[in-house]
């Protein structure tokens, strides 16, 4: 007796087809699973056996072998319970042959439980020639996003068995109502008094997707400012929402009942995080914080306190927008395009460069502290901004500060210009301009041209900093509604690269 049932698997967020082949032969009773199963897959035997017992389904007699093909790719997780269960029914001729794909974990009583990675697997299914899929009911919300595929939501195996023999029908995933995510009030920029310079820099960062570093004494409001970045970021496009949701689905971090992630992620890992936690890894590779920040913000507060190798591991994804993990079976990539926001004190006591308070650190201590942030990392941060203490008048003033909504409207307008400029290119904002498009998208006025030459020669800029200054200037010009990058736009962009001279090369 033999049956083959279609299922799916994931490598990172890339789907592949799995065939669960079930063979039952007349021999000593046994039940084996082969095809590089991990522990969760091997334990499937016990769950499936129990479902047969408790559900009153006849368990095949003899030697059962389940082969999960292709046999050379590791199979992880509990999602093969359902295809194995269906395969055991089909091998006995209890249900008709089916070309549909099955995924789901089973409880001992036969309830079908949610599994990770349903969205990326189903998105890939159609390309793999699959037309129909049966998935856990609790994954229906994310599955409802997938078009062009017949997707049925299953709560219990007995329902599924009835549906497969045509005795009843199952709900289509898209027809199941899901709760809208509750939106809680976000912190707003109007709560931050003064700090016009920092606010302006954050607006530019949000408008062009640029990385930003805030440096200043303790209590000046750096963390407060950073937490308000999401309130001025543009809405996600559909494509961005799907890309980000795929990652959260794959690692099981999607809220139950939430279909698509529509708000840009804001990830703020603590500085004690390990390099693997930040960038991903592990024996079953999991995406790290930088991939979870895809299409959103990665906020590193107290930057110099982060583990040196964790910081250095940021460099590749900051440059490429993807994270590559090397594994025994080959490479795995996760999209990891995020806006880096970082904050730091300038020295251990926090008051180096402070306008009124004296710094108690020695020169050596200051250099060592700043030196924890390496030149190459600093070079990849487009905007460096000093956050100075606000004075009493500003702090106690009743003057209304600009709200996030007002700032966001300007950001949106600048993004709109960018979307038009990059139509037809896989570029969503100025920070992502590829070298091939840089010259044509950043025309300089003659004054700006002269300044650029001067700055390049005087400051000894690297090619990378030159490109990054140009991109920031592009964003400043977009905020100003100017096609050409004028002198004032460029000189503002250059200013955001001059702090390293005050601090790092003092
Ligand atoms: N400009 C400001 N406007 C209003 N409150 C401020 C401002 N700056 C600091 N604060 C207050 O001080 C607190 C500490 O600021 P915080 O962002 O933690 O500083 P930092 O991260 O620079 O050490 C804030 O939570 C806020 O209550
Ligand atoms: Mg802070």
Structure notes:
- By secondary structure, the protein is α/β, with parallel strands linked by helices.
- The protein has two domains: 2-175, Ribosomal Protein S5, domain 2, CATH 3.30.230.10; 189-412, Rossmann fold.
- It is built from 22 helices and 16 strands.
- The protein has helices spanning 39-42, 44-55, 81-91, 118-125, 140-143, 157-164, 196-208, 222-227, 238-250, 275-279, 289-292, 308-313, 315-320, 363-371, 375-379, 392-396, 404-421, 435-441, 446-459, 463-479, 487-495, 499-503; strands at 2-11, 14-25, 30-34, 63-69, 101-102, 105-106, 112-113, 132-136, 150-154, 212-215, 266-267, 297-301, 322-327, 330-335, 339-344, 383-386.
- The strands form five sheets. It has a five-stranded parallel beta sheet. Strands 1-2-4-3 form a four-stranded mixed beta sheet. A three-stranded parallel beta sheet has the order 5-8-9, sandwiched between helices.
- Strand 8, helix 5 (140-143) and strand 9 (150-154) form a beta-alpha-beta unit.
- The termini are far apart.
- The model has no long low-confidence stretch (mean pLDDT 92).
- Bound molecules: adenosine-5'-diphosphate and magnesium ion.
What's the SSE blueprint?
Elements: E1 2-11, E2 14-25, E3 30-34, H1 39-42, H2 44-55, E4 63-69, H3 81-91, E5 101-102, E6 105-106, E7 112-113, H4 118-125, E8 132-136, H5 140-143, E9 150-154, H6 157-164, H7 196-208, E10 212-215, H8 222-227, H9 238-250, E11 266-267, H10 275-279, H11 289-292, E12 297-301, H12 308-313, H13 315-320, E13 322-327, E14 330-335, E15 339-344, H14 363-371, H15 375-379, E16 383-386, H16 392-396, H17 404-421, H18 435-441, H19 446-459, H20 463-479, H21 487-495, H22 499-503
Parallel strand pairs: 3-4, 5-8, 8-9, 10-15, 10-16, 11-12, 12-15
Antiparallel strand pairs: 1-2, 2-4, 6-7, 13-14
Helix pairs in contact: 2-3, 7-17, 7-20, 19-21, 20-21
The structure holds adenosine-5'-diphosphate and magnesium ion.
């Amino acid at each position: 007796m033999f049956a083959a049932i279609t299922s799916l698997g994931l490598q990172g967020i890339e789907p592949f087809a799995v065939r669960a082949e079930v063979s039952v032969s007349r021999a000593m009773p046994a039940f084996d699973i082969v095809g590089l199963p991990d522990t969760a897959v091997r334990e499937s035997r016990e769950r499936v056996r129990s479902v047969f017992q408790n559900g009153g389904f006849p368990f095949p007699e003899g030697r059962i072998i389940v082969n999960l093909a292709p046999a050379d790719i590791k199979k992880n997780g509990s999602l093969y319970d359902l295809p194995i269960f269906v395969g055991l029914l089909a091998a006995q001729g209890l249900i008709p042959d089916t070309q549909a794909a099955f995924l789901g974990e089973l409880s001992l009583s036969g309830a079908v439980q949610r599994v990770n990675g349903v969205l990326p697997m189903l998105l890939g299914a159609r390309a793999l020639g699959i037309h129909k899929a049966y998935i856990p009911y609790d994954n229906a919300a994310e599955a409802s996003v997938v078009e062009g595929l017949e997707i049925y939501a299953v709560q219990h195996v007995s329902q599924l068995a009835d549906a497969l023999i045509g005795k009843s029908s199952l709900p289509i995933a898209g027809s199941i109502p899901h709760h809208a995510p509750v939106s809680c009030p976000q912190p707003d920029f109007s709560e931050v008094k003064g700090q016009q310079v920092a606010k302006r820099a954050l607006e530019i960062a949000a408008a062009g997707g640029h990385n930003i570093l805030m440096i200043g004494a303790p209590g000046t409001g750096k963390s407060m400012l950073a937490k308000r970045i999401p309130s001025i970021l543009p809405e996600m496009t559909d494509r961005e929402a799907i890309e980000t949701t795929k990652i959260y689905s794959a690692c099981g971090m999607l809220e139950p009942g939430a279909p698509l992630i529509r708000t840009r992620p804001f990830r703020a890992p603590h500085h004690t995080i390990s390099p693997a936690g930040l960038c991903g890894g592990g024996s079953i590779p999991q995406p790290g914080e930088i991939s979870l920040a895809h299409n959103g913000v990665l906020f590193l507060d107290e930057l110099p306190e982060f583990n040196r190798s964790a910081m250095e591991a940021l460099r590749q994804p900051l440059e490429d927008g993807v994270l590559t993990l090397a594994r025994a079976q080959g490479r795995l990539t996760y999209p990891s395009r995020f806006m880096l926001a970082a904050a730091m004190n300038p020295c251990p006591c926090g008051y180096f460069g402070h306008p009124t308070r004296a710094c108690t650190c020695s020169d050596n201590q200051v250099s060592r502290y700043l030196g924890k942030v390496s030149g190459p990392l600093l070079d990849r941060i487009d905007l460096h901004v000093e956050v100075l203490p606000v004075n009493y008048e500003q702090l106690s003033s009743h003057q209304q500060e600009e709200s996030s909504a007002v700032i966001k409207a300007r950001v949106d307008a600048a993004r709109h210009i960018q979307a038009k400029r990059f139509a037809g290119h896989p570029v969503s904002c100025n920070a992502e301009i590829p070298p091939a498009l840089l010259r044509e998208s950043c025309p300089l006025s003659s004054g700006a041209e002269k300044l650029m030459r001067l700055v390049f020669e005087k400051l000894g800029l690297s090619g990378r900093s030159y490109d990054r200054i140009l991109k920031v200037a592009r964003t400043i010009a977009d905020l100003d509604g100017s096609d050409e990058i004028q002198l004032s736009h460029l000189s503002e962009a250059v200013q955001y690269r001059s702090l390293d001279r005050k601090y790092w090369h003092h």
